[in-house]
Design goal:
Elements lengths: L5 E4 L6 H7 L3 H6 L7 H11 L5 E6 L5 E9 L6 E8 L8 H16 L4 E7 L3 H9 L3 E6 L9 E7 H9 L4
Parallel strand pairs: 4-5
Antiparallel strand pairs: 1-2, 2-3, 3-4, 5-7, 6-7
Length: 173
């Protein structure tokens, strides 16, 4: 899968080191996304993810450099309802990469995985990530107070398949 600047591809063993290094970033750790405390943890994660069509590495289109990851995962709700998570390595933030990756993954989820809803939960202090979701036409559904493990609030967002199709049809992107 390709965007203007990125490729979203399957995980490869060589991605484990970059995943581990990205997870050393304190900002990422505070965002609530899962992180890995050792290279072995990263290798184990990559082994699980490399054949999962909902888990992708975000790389640069020109150089295949590891920029981050994005995934659609089951929330144990019902078929067609998944949660999106994404993370961009610190040195690649504020370049529009998260927005490009989210839009491409929504296309993939709604077209290839036949999803009906994609949800995303963001810690309230992660304003950059909330802004990405808003730019990608997610609807803010509410705030879960002191919901996160660090007792911060969680902001809940979602987008329905028909909303995404309408956005695409009307050329908003």
């Amino acid at each position: 899968m390709e965007t203007k600047d990125l490729i979203l591809r399957n995980w490869q063993e060589r991605d484990a080191q970059a995943l581990y290094e990205m997870c050393l970033d304190d900002t990422l750790r505070k965002s609530g996304i899962g992180f890995y405390n050792s290279l072995i943890d990263g290798q184990n994660a990559v082994s699980c993810w490399k054949n999962n069509k909902g888990f992708k590495v975000i790389t640069g289109k020109r150089n295949d450099i590891f920029i981050g990851f994005i995934c659609l995962s089951d929330m144990n709700r019902y078929d067609g309802y998944m949660e999106m998570e994404y993370a961009i390595a610190a040195k690649y933030r504020n370049n529009g990469y998260a927005e490009q990756a989210v839009k491409m993954m929504l296309d993939h989820g709604f077209k290839e995985m036949n999803l009906s809803v994609v949800a995303a939960w963001v810690r309230s202090h992660n304003k950059e990530s909330a802004r990405v979701l808003e730019k990608c036409s997610f609807t803010f559904e509410g705030r879960l107070r002191k919901h996160a493990r660090d007792k911060s609030d969680t902001l809940c967002y979602s987008i329905l398949k028909e909303e995404w199709e309408n956005v695409k049809r009307n050329g908003i992107y």
